């Protein structure tokens, strides 16, 4: 069956899982193409993304320096890719004919939710709930923005104290609000059933789990984790919500192998 949406990204990428979890729930078929983060420098960034050929490597017209997360290595982005994706980032989603590019992981997940609306609503019961879901998605984008430099610093084993401080402040603001939302005994962030807001929350938490692979580096820099293993003491409802979501089969398929690997590092 032809996929309803194609996504190009590095893997594993919890941002992509916002879309694949939604797709598992509502039956939309999504194709994900890509490679490791390091491997993507050897790919042609295009609707028809693929490993570079010798001729592609010679083609200076596609060569572009990456801005976020790809250091000083040139990337190879086609003109059609940049037309569809003016910010030039991954995850990069496309309509099946390749004509419409959808960027920002939250919007890619929204596309999946809209495509599968007839099978299952993950976007609230009315315009107010839908807009409240958008509110959580917007807040998660701010969190993502303020933690990105920190998480990339961890990957490069070169965390700047300013990036750590920004991430710490952002995580605190975000989790306090999630905790408050769940305080009246709610089991979902919006309304009383699972929505895209919960999917997005689970994936943002999973992004932060990456920190656990860098305990030694943080200790070396005398920095404390922004999401310490003891965070459930401070945010019990948020922690419980995350535990519930990660155990859900539609979530576990993507999240569990990744989280388990990070939790069982020597
Ligand atoms: N807020 C965006 C973040 C996307 C993003 O920043 N992607 C980076 C990799 S982490 C990228 O594609 N960088 C390529 C470049 O800068 O050329 C989302 O959620 O999709």
Record the strand order, biggest sheet. 2-1-7-8
CATH class of the largest domain: Mainly Alpha
Number of helices: 11
State mean pLDDT (0 to 100 scale): 96
- How big a fraction of the residues is strand? 5-15%
Structural class designation: alpha/beta
Oligomer: single chain
From the alpha carbons, calculate the radius of gyration and give it in angstroms.
19 Å
Looking at the overall shape, the CATH architecture of the largest domain is Up-down Bundle
What gross morphology would you assign?
globular
Most strands sheet:
4 strands, mixed
Task: Catalogue the unreliable spans.
Answer: none
Estimate nothing, just give the exact number of structural domains.
Answer: 2
Distance between the termini: 42 Å
Sequence of secondary-structure elements: EHEEEHEEHEEHHHHHHHH
Ligands bound, unique: glutathione
Helix content: 40-55%
Number of strands: 8
Find the CATH topology of the largest domain: Glutathione S-transferase Yfyf (Class Pi), Chain A, domain 2
Protein architecture, described:
There is one protein chain. The chain has 266 residues and is α/β, with parallel strands linked by helices. It folds into two domains: 5-115, 3-Layer(aba) Sandwich (Glutaredoxin), CATH 3.40.30; 127-263, Glutathione S-transferase Yfyf (Class Pi), Chain A, domain 2 (Up-down Bundle). The protein has helices spanning 14-26, 54-58, 79-84, 105-115, 127-155, 161-182, 196-209, 215-220, 231-234, 236-247, 249-263, and strands spanning 5-10, 30-35, 43-45, 50-51, 63-65, 74-77, 92-94, 101-103. A four-stranded mixed beta sheet has the order 2-1-7-8. A four-stranded mixed beta sheet has the order 4-3-6-5. Helix 5 (127-155) runs antiparallel to helix 6, helix 5 runs parallel beside helix 7 (196-209) and helix 7 (196-209) runs parallel beside helix 11. Glutathione (GSH) binds at residues 15, 66-70, 75, 88-91, 104-105, 144. Glutathione (GSH) binds next to loops.
